[in-house]
Amino acid sequence: MDGNRMRDTARIPETFSREVLADMLEDLPLGVAVHGGPGFTCLYANAQARATSEGRELVGLPFADAWPEHSDRVLPLMQRVLETGEPHLSEDRPFGLRQRPGEPPEQRFITFSWRRLDLDGAKAVLVTARDTTDEVRARRVAEREAAELDEVFERMGDAFFALDRDWCFTYVNHRATELLGKPKEQLAGRSIWDVFGQAEGSKFDVELHRAMSEQTAVAFQEYYPPLDMWASVQAYPSPTGLSVFLSNITSLKQQEAALGTSEGALRAVIDNSPSVIQMKDLDGVFIRVNEEFARLFDRPKGEVIGKSDRDLLPPESADRLEAHDRQVRQAGHPITFEEEVSTPVGGARRYLTTKFPLKDASGRVYGTAGISVDITQRAEQERRLVESEERFRKVFEEGPIGVVLVEPVDLRIVAANDAYRRIIRYPRHELTRLSLLDVTADEDRAKTRQLVDLVLKGEIPFYRWEKRYVRRNDALVWVSVTGSLLRDETGRPSLFLGMVEDITQRKQAETALRDKDLAIRKAYSDVIGAVTGGKLILMTPDELHEVVGEMVGPEWRATEYSQFSVMRRELAAVLLSQGLSEDETNSYVLAATEAVTNAVKHGGSGTMCVRRAGESLQIEVADHGPGIDFEDLPKATLVSGFSTKATLGMGFTIMLEVCDRLLLTTQPGLTILVLEKSL
């Protein structure tokens, strides 16, 4: 350091430290508390620490009274840190925080550290808590559905209100109405300057107008006499207005004045903070750094004091950091930056840094200070998340199968990819005004609603079926649809997902094949009927049901040939009772035996019964075998002695000679043969 820099550093007021350090602790994005004495009484707690106290005044309370639910675990730990002097770190620990008394705790992930402090000869424990929930949950951000805006603001601990460009209230949460002392009805739609006229010309007036005009976030503290309240204000602008967060810090101000927190304690807190903290003079020379800063550069703090960014970092990094310092000094208020820095110990890291000007009692800026939190892991997770979302978008938009996202209750179409729009022939802007039922054929609407409801109720995990869509030009298109439900992380239905494939060509081919099969069957039936003189008639099951008569006598079931002799005797008795001669009965029983033999041989079992239709007797033989293949049917019925595993074999020849008509229906799983003979 040269002589000029030494002289400038020496002119820095000695009285700045306490105020600066106190402000730094209040703005620190960490919970900081100091505990010491009997019962580890709370000696100091910054804003972040106080936010976990459910409204209790922490300072002066023993730890067991301040945080009773954690005392059994934490008190022994603090005693061990106090006795051994060894710090303790607990990373990403699930921790329940209550926003208000009586409410269930909200689970957060917190990194705690405990360090021993020496305060004027007395020993105490410094506790810091950093909320790492965003880092832990970063991978879940794409799947999380944001809570309703009103619910979020109503549950937050801070007062919140929104203003439009004309300074009129557009939203006020319940906490804000309590803090401002006016109901929502007296605030909604009115100008803040009409309601709180005494604020004009105050710091509230100046800072809020600056936030709106410069479109920059502001944060400040100010006393408002009409409400007898010290307020901490954070305001965030947007093109449509201003979002304002308001906290009552009157008790904090009173505590600060009463406690007179020592400069030594504040310095100890800063030095033990896991954040990187530094102060510079107007020439960019470091006048104070904390232990974490020195650790990253692998140097004692004494070697860093008096140096600048250019002594520690590459020129391009130093240029960027110096530009940030100038911007903060010119603005005169805190600004938050994302900064990339490479250090000997940490390597290339990304930090979220809040920088603010250092001012003396007269308001003159004599330097800058910065508090940096390492967000390298979070930034990397955000980058991966963006890449993942981009991959998903490409799969969704460019996939070959139609994809549609639908509201699960009213079935309104939310989004659809190009493949789906090609199927349905609707442009994007028209399709999203329709529901799923609007593009479904009338005949399929009821079943569509039924299947969606079954999935919503959890009775089925998904459904898959073939249905008809109505295109924009009223043409019908056949599709295969697989429908499933997307849920958020709480298990509530989020969106209904449909995977849709155009199967119109396949349906047309199936129809053509079915028509061809019917034509072939009719041709076989006509040929066989003509060749047999109309004695062998092929029928469908429904046609056969129309011509068979009422059953007379019992029904016989055969599974093996040894049962045939009994069946033949009982069958003959029934036929004789119906008026057949003995010779006719014998030949009729022989033909029926051939039919039952084939049923047992090819179907594994068969049934037989006698029916009477007018002046005709009918012996019905049925089995549940493979049926007769139409390719073999002409040979099986017309060629004497022909037999395959799936045919009736030579028995057909005998049946045609004995019977007046043979009525046959056959298909896989069912063959029925009726041997008909006139009385």
Question: What's the short version?
Answer:
The protein has 27 helices and 26 strands.
Radius of gyration: 44 Å
Oligomeric status of the shown chains? single chain
Which range does the strand content fall in?
A: 25-35%
- Rounded mean pLDDT is 82
Distance separating the two termini: 132 Å
Class per helix and strand makeup: alpha+beta
Kindly state the percentage of residues in helix. Answer: 25-40%
Shape: elongated
Unreliable runs = 1-12, 643-650
The profile of the biggest β sheet is: 6 strands, mixed
How many separate helices?
A: 27
Q: What is the strand and helix layout of this fold?
A:
Elements: H1 3-10, H2 16-27, E1 31-36, E2 41-45, H3 47-50, H4 63-66, H5 71-84, E3 88-97, E4 106-119, E5 122-131, H6 133-136, H7 149-155, E6 159-164, E7 169-172, H8 174-180, H9 184-187, H10 192-195, H11 203-214, E8 218-224, E9 229-238, E10 241-248, H12 250-259, H13 263-271, E11 276-281, E12 286-289, H14 291-296, H15 301-304, H16 309-312, H17 315-331, E13 335-343, E14 347-359, E15 365-374, H18 376-398, E16 402-406, E17 413-416, H19 418-424, H20 428-431, H21 442-456, E18 462-470, E19 476-487, E20 493-502, H22 504-531, E21 536-538, H23 541-547, E22 550-558, H24 564-577, H25 582-603, E23 606-613, E24 616-623, H26 633-638, H27 651-658, E25 661-667, E26 670-678
Parallel strand pairs: 21-25
Antiparallel strand pairs: 1-2, 1-5, 3-4, 4-5, 6-7, 6-10, 8-9, 9-10, 11-12, 11-15, 13-14, 14-15, 16-17, 16-20, 18-19, 19-20, 22-23, 23-24, 24-26, 25-26
